[in-house]
Design a protein that fits this description.
The chain is α+β, with helices and mostly antiparallel strands. The protein is built from 16 helices and eight strands. The N and C termini lie far apart (89 Å).
């Protein structure tokens, strides 16, 4: 099977897997065409020993029209300029195009005529005729296109990522290099609180990640060399210049990560003879990797289903290491790796500590309101008066509001980091709620009176019974 982006729908395009000679020829041609539009064009290093390719990945940066704008336009016309996506579709001759965000697009381009494709797979459905490719690329014709009885076109799927900077392009080349290498490394470093995504390497904050994964991530670095050094990975030869020779070679390379280890076989079984409870990439104090599919995380189960390199890593390579007793050294703890990250990446610890404090303050405001402030005011009080009192207490304590006749929360309710002392808040609110209620209720009643008088005055003016004050003065 090849690329699947256009395999379904009313008008699918047949995009079979490409043999290496077709892949390399089309990749090079696409790069040449895209260099008409972008200064930097590249493709990540391919996975090891591939005999066929499902699609072509291309990364581009520095739009030539933006980097080197012409001093004067060569011609004048009233047509809107091409967008980058339209230009890319045009130069590559796309038959179909999809895009979910401003920086990525997936397209189908015609199979090259000088590499005839001999299809042995049956045609599934009838589909539309090929129209002018430039027109279709601009219109992005999809499921609403009229079906015809023409044979299904044979194409090649091309995935393009438009990087905003050269640094981001460099990172994407690094992250996507060698196919699924970072899936292997990701399952290795995840138990130690480390995560790699499309931006860089992060350390996760334990107390936040179960509630908000995005806020739990603190960026360590976006520099590939710096990250490889921190993880202890070798890059003294051509590991990041060309594909690895085989799956086995890439597995062995992944084991050079200083955080990699395999749980010794003699401690694998639990006391009752069953399997350990550790999951792939799970567990706070070890990087042990279990091979039972039912114990894998959801992301790892998907990788097991669709990523052969990852599947064999989990089901073949790691069990073999365990059986032979390889890599049995005791792992670091998550806390040890965190301290190593603070030492290796200067400036990260203050950001990490600040993020924790901000998170605790945010969460504490919610718990103070629900568990401390509201319960202080008697529940059997008349509803509107109770609501008025609790609202005022919230404003005074949490927001520092001083508009309630001089009633203010003492600064001793907070520590130097801005966190509240919940016992002190409880005591102050319990001692002061009657006074707060009295002041807040008077303010509320006065506000209601003022609103009623204003409404009545507007009503008299509209009915003509009374002129506004400024008109009275004129007469």
């Amino acid at each position: 099977m090849g690329g699947l982006a256009f395999a379904s729908g009313l008008n699918p395009v047949f995009t079979p897997r490409m043999p290496p000679n077709v892949y390399r020829a089309v990749r090079d041609r696409c790069q040449e065409k895209l260099r008409e539009l972008f200064v930097a064009v590249a493709t990540p290093i391919e996975a090891p020993a591939k005999t066929s390719f499902g699609d072509i990945d291309l990364l581009v940066a520095w739009n030539r029209q933006e980097v080197f704008p012409p001093r004067k336009p060569a011609t004048f016309n009233h047509h809107s300029p091409e967008s980058p996506k339209e230009a890319i579709s045009r130069v590559l001759g796309a038959i179909r195009c999809k895009s979910d965000n401003p920086h990525t697009m997936t397209m189908a381009i015609p199979w090259p005529e000088d590499f005839p494709f001999h299809d042995t797979e049956p045609k599934l459905t009838v589909i539309p005729e090929l129209r002018n490719t430039e027109f279709e690329a601009k219109q992005n014709i999809d499921a609403d296109e009229k079906a015809t009885n023409d044979p299904k076109p044979t194409g090649i799927q091309v995935d393009i990522h438009v990087c905003e900077t050269l640094d981001h392009l460099q990172w994407m080349l690094f992250k996507q290099a060698h196919g699924d290498l970072w899936n292997l490394l990701g399952s290795t470093i995840r138990p130690f609180g480390l995560t790699v995504d499309e931006v860089g390497l992060y350390v996760r904050i334990p107390e936040i990640e179960e509630i908000n994964k995005a806020e739990a991530k603190v960026l360590l670095s976006t520099d590939p060399g710096e990250i490889l050094c921190f993880l202890g990975m070798k890059f003294d030869d051509k590991q990041w210049e060309e594909p690895f020779a085989s799956d086995e070679v890439i597995y062995e390379y992944a084991t050079t990560c200083r955080l990699f280890w395999v749980k010794p076989k003699e401690t694998e079984d639990s006391a009752d003879g069953g399997a350990s409870n550790l999951e792939v990439g799970d567990g706070e104090e070890s990087g042990a990797v279990m091979v039972e599919k039912r114990k894998l995380k959801a992301n790892d189960r998907r990788r097991m289903a669709f990523r052969p390199l990852f599947r064999n890593w989990i089901s073949v390579f790691l069990p073999a290491c365990q059986a032979s007793g390889r890599f049995p050294s005791d792992p670091f703890t998550r806390e040890e790796v965190l301290q190593q990250a603070f030492e290796y990446f200067p400036g990260v610890q203050p950001i990490y500590d600040s993020r924790i404090t901000e998170w605790r303050i945010k969460r504490q405001r919610e718990t103070l309101w629900k568990k401390v402030i509201k319960p202080i005011v008697p529940a059997d009080m008349e509803c509107s008066r109770r609501s008025c009192c609790t609202s005022a207490l919230k404003k005074i304590i949490l927001n520092g509001d001083d508009s309630f006749d001089g009633i203010v929360a003492p600064p001793t309710l907070k520590d130097r980091n801005g966190l509240f002392n919940e016992d002190a808040v409880h005591t102050w609110a319990k001692d002061n709620w009657p006074k707060v209620l009295d002041v807040a209720w008077k303010i509320n009643q006065q506000r209601m009176t003022d609103q009623m008088e204003l409404k009545a005055a507007k009503k008299r003016t509209v009915s003509g019974l009374e002129k506004p004050a400024d008109e009275k003065a004129k007469t």
